[in-house]
Amino acid sequence: MKDAPPVVVVIDDDLSVREAIQGLLETADLRVELFASPQDYLKSKREDVPGCIILDVRLSGSSGLDFQRELVGTGIHTPIIFLTGYADVPMTVQAMKAGAVEFLTKPYRDQALIEAVLAAIEKDRARRGSKRALADLRQRLDSLTERERQVMALTVAGQQNKQIAGTIGIRDVTVRVHRRQLMRKMGAKSVAELVRIAELLRNEGIDV
After folding, report:
1. 25, 178, 193, 208: which could form a disulfide with 188 (CB 3.0–4.6 Å)?
2. ω before 6 within 30° of 0 (cis)?
3. Helical H runs in the chain?
4. 10-residue block means of pLDDT along the chain (208 residues)?
5. Which residues pair with 104 in a beta bridge?
6. What CATH superfamily classification does 7-131 receive?
7. Between helices 146-156 and 191-203, what is the axis angle to 10°?
8. Environment class of residue 114 by beta-carbon count within 10 Å: exposed (0-12), middle (13-18) or buried (19+)?
């Protein structure tokens, strides 16, 4: 399924700044939504599409860095590009460690901002694609029978069919049947691919 056109969110308490960024990004055929504050953004109806957030570090009554932490805490992982006129090294390091994709100091070059936005959108597309792929693998894993999951676990642990048969206490031919079934259900064309799938799931804390 192809993603819908991306949306770039601009959060800045200065209207002229918001409109200037909107004008610039629209020259690159990007959809832009403007918000005067993080609270306005959180209250808005957000589209489930790829995108990024351009965020001023210093906002009236709040900090862009605090808002970044709030987003992560609520499970929103949209890439953030910070803009600031008062950058310092600790602030930059803090923002990047928390997942910001870029930290640009005002006045920024127009091309630098456009390139940062395009890179952030691609990063978000990749994140969303990985999330969909993982959800599909989880669904496939859930479709396995208890016996098929046993055979899968022993297969990715390196056991051969005869060893698996001895471990579980079933016939070798039955192991082969279960293995064919689980490979089909998991969409794996080889044991190596099955091992890779198992590692992806385990890295997400899913028991295999």
Report:
1. 193
2. no
3. 15-26, 38-43, 64-73, 89-97, 110-142, 146-156, 161-168, 172-186, 191-203
4. 81 92 96 93 90 86 80 87 76 72 88 96 93 94 96 96 95 96 96 95 88
5. 83
6. Response regulator (3.40.50.2300)
7. 100
8. middle
Tell me which of 1.10.10.10, 1.10.287.130, 1.20.120.530, 3.40.190.10 is the CATH number of domain 143-203.
1.10.10.10
Per-residue pLDDT, 188: 96
Spans of all domains in the chain? 7-131, 143-203
Q: Which single residue is written with the structure tokens 């909107």?
A: 22
Can you tell me the distance from the alpha carbon of 104 to that of 87, in angstroms, rounded to the nearest whole number? 8
Identify residue 130 by its one-letter amino acid code: S
pTM, full prediction? 0.75
Residue 136 burial (CB count, 10 A): 11
Show the tokens assigned to 54.
Answer: 């351009």
Residues composing the chain: 208
As given in the structure block, the two tokens for residue 29 are 């055929």
Whole-angstrom CA distances from 165 to 36, 40, 130, 147, 175 are 64, 60, 35, 11, 6
Residue in the block written with tokens 């590692």: 199
